Amino acid sequence: MTARPIIGLDDAFGARARELRELQRRLLDLFAEADYEEVIPPIVERPDALKSGAGRFLADQTVVFTDPAGAGLLALRSDMTPQIARIAATRLLSEKVLKLSYSGTIMMARPELRGGSRQQWQTGIECLGIAGAHGDAEVMHLAARSMLAAGFTNPVLQVGHIGLLKALVAGSSMPLDKWTALVNRRSPDDLKHAMREETLSEPVRKALLELTGGMADRNWIEANRQAFGADFERAADELLVLVAEVGERMEGDVHVYADAGVMPRFLYHSGILFAGYAEGVAHALLHGGRYDAMMAAHGRDMPATGFSCDLWAWLDAV
């Protein structure tokens, strides 16, 4: 009897397997040249370790099972960043600055896109212990160089800040994950429908529509930085300082744009966000940003930022 395939999971062999290993080595060599040391976490963790700082947003994508060897409940990782946070807060506690890279399989409870894969070959870096724009800029430079190393054409980094949306919807009855999903959908009609039940001021409604419509660029952020309270202004200033430090272009002619509509992949991000795109690719190639709050949730209060990508998706896109 032939075993039925598992929906969203597949085998890789021959040329596809070789291509993945070649791309993986190219990126890990790039990270090593920048003094990022590779770590290889286990594929399973205790559920609490994966959910710390990410809450139900990551829990919804985590497969949990009972260990037959008696270790209790275990979980297949659906994202490696919480594992890096756990390692930094325990095994590497004595290190004040950590620059770590990783590459391996993750599995999600359901595909992120209809008809997509539940397995990803997640690869990325985490920069811990370097606060503010300096740490964010370093990670963004490596993200840009990674897209170039993979062979993408005309790569772009779009940079935002989760604090902008948080400030706009503070006091709303709708949770933040619903707002991020709405803005990320880039559908003003869907947003208008959702806002019918919300008690938001007209300036806030207009701003949310502009975020969703892709109009919240650097000029928009500069013009509105003082319009929505101290938290909005603080987030806007952090974003503008970073964009000024990075400049409009990185090495290899990678363009950088400020966009208040950039949303996180998971809601453990607590500050700067960025996403990578390239010519001919309709979806984001990578996601990154600052997640200081997750480190605090793991018991070690230290600045942290990073980015990750899925090598299977990169091979398909290239």
Automatic annotation (TrEMBL):
Q: Where is the Class II Histidinyl-tRNA synthetase (HisRS)-like catalytic core domain?
A: 8-311
- Note the Pfam families from the entry: tRNA-synt_His (PF13393)
Residue sites binding L-histidine per the record: D79, M80, T81, Q122, E126
Any one GO CC term of the record? cytoplasm
Keyword 4Fe-4S carried by entry: no
Q: Which UniProt keywords apply?
A: Glycosyltransferase, Transferase
A molecular-function term among this protein's GO annotations: glycosyltransferase activity
**Keyword hit for NADP:** no
What domain of life is recorded for the organism? Bacteria
Any one Gene Ontology BP term: histidyl-tRNA aminoacylation
> Which InterPro entries does the record cross-reference, listed alphabetically?
aa-tRNA-synth_II/BPL/LPL, HisRS-like_core, HisRS/HisZ
SUPFAM superfamilies, from UniProt? Class II aaRS and biotin synthetases (SSF55681)
Per its record, how is this protein called by name?
ATP phosphoribosyltransferase regulatory subunit
Q: Which organism is it from?
A: Mariprofundus ferrooxydans PV-1
